[in-house]
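Protein Record: Sequence and Backbone Structure Tokens
======================================================

Structure line: whole-number tokens from a learned vocabulary of local backbone shapes, matched to residues.

Purpose: to set a sequence beside its fold so the mapping can be learned.

___
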Amino acid sequence: MKISTKGRYALRMLVDLAEHRGEGYVALKDIAERQALSKKYLEQIVPVLNKSGILRTNRGFQGGYSLSRSPETVTVGEVLRLTEGSMAPVKCIENDAFVDCDRSSDCPTLYVWQGLKKAIDTYLDSITLQDIVDRQRESYSNDYVI
């Protein structure tokens, strides 16, 4: 499994919004600048996040984006499933259904893929945007020079 640029950029954008949560709406150009990302590419990701209810948008002067939910409630798994689709390691167990496989009833390796999917989902759903922000702040606070 490989996470695409879309998934990685979406996560970085949302973490940036979580970091700047108390500042009102944040312009996309500011996020793109801080994160060294393409504003054009972020513009393509915004509709997916907006439609899902994670983002709140405000047009016009002082417009921009903010999280519509608390960063403690948005998981990495949720963001990646929105942008990447299924996190299943093999096609036959996408969406917990057996697809395109006439061997699923007696497949000797099926339990391996089901276990891997469960481990991936459990891990990604255990990390929130707030966890990432907290960890980043902790690493910055430990970065000092005498």
